[in-house]
Amino acid sequence: MIKKIKLAVLFGGKSNEYIISLHSAAAIINNIPKERYDVTLIGITEKGKWLLYDGDADSIYDDTWHKRNLSPVVLNMDNSFKGFLKLNEEKSSYEKIEIECIFPVLHGRNGEDGTVQGLCQMAGIPFVGCSMASSAVCMDKEFTHIICEAAGIKTAPFISAVNSSSLNIKALYEEAFKKLSLPMFIKPANNGSSLGISKIRSYDEFEKGIMEAFEHDKKVVLEAMVEGFEIGCAVVGNDKLTIGEVDEIETKNDFFDYVEKYTQHNSKIHCPARIDVEMQKRAKEIAIRVYKALNCSGLARIDMFFTTNNEIILNEVNTIPGLTDVSRYPSMLKKIGIEYTDLIVKLVDLAMEQG
């Protein structure tokens, strides 16, 4: 009989991608092989409360999971044991919940940006995905650009700006126009799911786009528009890497925005991508280079542009990509024979391997 691994699944999160996390987590919970794992579910509300949840995945998916009397929990940070402390109602006593591995099914800020990963590292508990440092630099689009450019990986021309009382938006526009031309894109430096991104064709759109991006982050990245379309590549592994099939986003919109990511009214995902075998191979090679340059581990989805000149340019890196059973990341791996349940097992094994 296999000794079950005590696995904690974190879901929700203090993030504007909270709902996406719920959908990813529900799929994972429904597909975790119960004969291999003793699963503890920890939900994090939008206000940041950590709660022990013992209900079904459907209530997570429809965001009713927290509408019951749930006990608060905290991650134990001393060396007495590894796991969570369940605080009893009067909070004058607690129970220990031992955990051997944590699966953070969290997207965006306070989940994908190194914050939770740092907590896990401090608690000494193995966790699925990239380290604290790798998660932080992958989440920050400016740092991703800087590190990858230093590694000889081509990225779109860009500049960054920080919101402050001394920021001159007109001067920033002139600098951006001179270096990037129009159209250009404005993106929050630390955000996912295309939230706060705008395509800019004029100064008026620039002013509006900057304000919208600053609602999501204090720092923004301005990028030159790349003529072409988006492709993506799923990578899984620590030292030995497995590369999924390359996929392609076909969209009629200005870009693959938040609504399109989760409705695809005007978009379609092609897997494999409609590029020749040699360019697919090239995309996979670049994905590996990006993964290694950013010191990724466990998993990441590398998003790139395939240009009209048949060049491949890095767009961004997602260290906790969408993980529903029909999301792009698992779909790319399914194309090479890795089924969804096997992917979950693989990710936990990789986390335990890291120790």
Protein architecture, described:
The protein contains eleven helices and 16 strands. The chain has 355 residues and is of the alpha+beta class. The protein has a seven-stranded mixed beta sheet with strand order 6-5-4-3-2-1-7. Strands 14-13-12-15-16 form a five-stranded antiparallel beta sheet. Strands 8-11-9-10 form a four-stranded antiparallel beta sheet, sandwiched between helices. Strand 12 (228-237) and strand 13 form a beta hairpin.
Number of helices: 11
What composes the largest sheet? 7 strands, mixed
Rg over C-alpha atoms, rounded to the nearest angstrom: 21 Å
Spell out the helices and strands N to C: EHEEHEEEEHHHEHEEHEEEHEHEEHH
Tally of DSSP β-strands = 16
Oligomer: single chain
Provide mean pLDDT, rounded: 93
Structural class: alpha+beta
Contiguous uncertain segments of 5+ residues: none
Shape: globular
Task: Estimate the helix proportion, in percent.
Answer: 25-40%
Strand order in the largest sheet: 6-5-4-3-2-1-7
Provide the β-strand percentage band.
25-35%
How widely separated are the two ends? 23 Å
